[in-house]
Design a protein that fits this description.
This protein has 266 residues and is an alpha/beta fold. 41% of the residues lie in helices and 22% in strands. It has 9 helices and 8 strands. Strands 1, 2, 3, 4, 5, 6, 7 and 8 form an 8-stranded mixed β-sheet that branches. Helix 6 crosses helix 8 and helix 8 packs antiparallel against helix 9.
Length: 266
């Protein structure tokens, strides 16, 4: 499974939390209370950003199982205040036994679905349907990278196309769904009888996010170059221009994401 370091996860946490759909969480919270739910499985937990965001918005006793392939990231997880029991499971999502989902009321993940394959997601959706648990998948990348109109660069479209093609490469779970993941997941859940809701949850980034955006530009530079090595010079020149703009503090950037909630049929 693709690895992310704790510095990157820390950089994005504040933006992730302010971008997520509060409306979908309110619907989930009402369902959680009415069903006396208490058990959550969090897939690809990292350092616990999803836990930190979601747990305070759910009521009562909570029993969380956090699953990630990186034991160092899991060691950095800290429970937010409240009646929360934490269980950590070190395991690669490519091979982890999904049968534990049968003991869950909610399965959740953040910034994960665009990294997984259609086959893996089908297996997950079917397991969740069998378990009749709710699902909340937040911050799935939707393929949109938009600098403000006055910030347009002639190479933006070329680089974005390369990035989105690169998104479909194998990230450890087979050919990744990339920007199609959220819509694919919603269709799967609907076919399995879930009631679904989606909400846009874009990152809206500005000068206060300069360090995060610089990291994004470097990551996009690497991905686009790997996808189109014959255009390396153009891509690197684009990255230099974008980094200079970020350093100037005169920019705005929108990176598209989608949140998806699914509740099982009665």
């Amino acid at each position: 499974m693709e690895t992310f370091d704790s510095h990157w996860l820390a950089l994005r946490r504040r933006v992730d939390h302010k971008s997520r759909s509060e409306d979908l969480v309110k619907i989930l919270s009402e369902w959680w209370t009415s069903h006396a739910a208490s058990r959550v499985i969090d897939l690809g937990s990292g350092t616990g950003s999803n836990l930190q965001y979601l747990a305070p918005r759910l009521s009562g006793q909570q029993d969380w199982t956090l699953i990630d392939h990186d034991p160092q990231l899991l060691r950095e997880v800290r429970a937010p205040p409240g009646l929360i029991k934490l269980n950590s499971l070190v395991g690669d999502l490519a091979t982890v036994d999904l049968s534990s989902i049968h003991n869950a009321d909610v399965v959740t993940a953040s910034a994960l679905l665009d990294l997984v394959s259609a086959e893996w997601l089908k297996a997950l959706a079917n397991t969740c349907a069998d378990a009749r648990c709710a699902v909340l998948f937040s911050l799935t990348y939707d393929g949109t990278i938009e600098w403000t109109t006055h910030d347009m660069d002639p190479a933006d479209s070329v680089v974005m196309a390369a990035i989105n093609k690169h998104q479909h490469r194998d990230k450890g779970l087979g050919s990744a769904l990339g920007p199609t993941a959220s819509h694919f997941a919603e269709a799967l859940l609907c076919d399995l009888g879930f009631q679904t809701w989606t909400a846009y949850s874009p990152w809206r980034l500005g000068p206060e996010d300069s360090e995060l955006v610089s990291e994004l530009v470097s990551g996009w530079q690497a991905a686009a170059t790997e996808q189109m090595p014959d255009q390396k010079a153009e891509i690197w020149a684009w990255a230099d221009r974008r980094r200079a703009m970020v350093a100037s503090g005169n920019f705005e950037l929108r990176v598209g994401h989608i949140d998806l909630l699914g509740l099982p049929s009665h």
